[in-house]
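ESCALATION

Customer reports they have been waiting on this structure for their group meeting. Please prioritize. Original submission:
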Amino acid sequence: MFKFSHSENNTASYVPHKWHEECGVFGIWAPGQPVGDLCYLGLFSLQHRGQESAGIAVTNGLHIDEVKGMGLMSVAFRERKPTLKGHAAIGHVRYSTFGSSSFSNIQPIFAYTSSDGFIGLGHNGNLTNATELKDKLISEENCQFQTTTDSEVMLNLIATGKEKNLLDRIESGLKQVTGAYSNVILTPNKLIGIRDPQGFRPLCLGKFPGGGFCISSETCGLDAVKAELIKEFEPGEMIVIDKNGYSSKIINKSDIITACIFEHIYFARPDSTIDGLSVWQTRFRLGEQLAREFNDTADLVMPVPDTGITSALGFSRQSGLPYVEGLIKNRYVGRSFIMPEQISRELTVEMKLNPIKVNLEDKNIVLIDDSIVRGTTSKKIISLLRKAGARKVHMCVSSPPITHPCYYGIDTSIRKELIAAVKTVPEIRDFLDLDSLHYLSKQGLLESVYDPLQKQNCVECFKS
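Update from on-call: job pushed to the front of the queue and completed.
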């Protein structure tokens, strides 16, 4: 009989308006090592992918020990550090893209079967046919759903599959879903990683020098636990880790590979590698291309920290303009800073960023950022620069205008809230109080994001 224990912290957080990352997943198979601590470290390095909630589950094959909580990991695990014992673990940091923000939706989530015992799942992405599949599972399999997430749809497809072998049920279940997923799955004797057939979201496999393996949304997670990168998952690939090592199989093929280009623009950490590309180098090239397309004059280039730093360095080298810090970021105001009153919410930018007046007074500035979503934060930042004495502010954005929501695991709200969907570039310039506004061209973006896998990056959010 399997034993399940669990600890929770139910603190909620306020998440400011900006691109909301999807999720981060981490898994570890390392008998004899402190898998709970290692999973915590790996997951902590993926905090940028989700700040709404976090969870870790550890097993020794008979016992599942789990810790979950709302908010950043430092808050979610405040009462109980995950020094959990076992031979394998999976973890998840979440920003909700399908389903509400609530404790019941924190991952990993579990199902139990008579043949395999428990099956645990952590999911990064978003399914586009989740509602239809959920209705089918309820009507045909009498499934009782405990969460409002699409992740539970996948879990129930696996748990109710008719195939005798678990791996066959996983393969069959995932062939029924459409959309984006990079998953870690935990069973009593296996750790499994799977990437969707179109490769929307990243996933990689690492190995410990002393034995054992780990799976991470990004390579920075491997670095955090001193694991060596073995490979990045191919689209449609399933990797199974057990006492005999690991094995790989392509379980679902697609003729079209469409990895999310925003992993390179914003989501991934700069020290990660995504599909063979250094994220830092890619963002540097985006800045260089922005400089080639820029046709105004200025005295200096400065980033919106931290998201614009690497592209601003590339812009500086290509243009010859000096790179200058114009805004200092308060490192102690996190992305999930709790603000109880509306007046506090309105002061968010001022609390997080403060201008360096001596670098800005009477200067013509090129301000670099990765994207403009709703425009409200950019407007406040530009107001800070004006008040600090900037003579002119030119804004260069290292992505094209975002005109459509994403349906594959990123919260970009509804289309009418995207400023580029309802305003022209000159209208956005005037709304933000800029002297000029320059978006990176779509062609410049695609040329800057090199393509070693000969894939087609997903750029649906930029379509006309």
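Sent to customer with the following note: The chain has two domains: 3-257, 277-462.
Escalation resolved.
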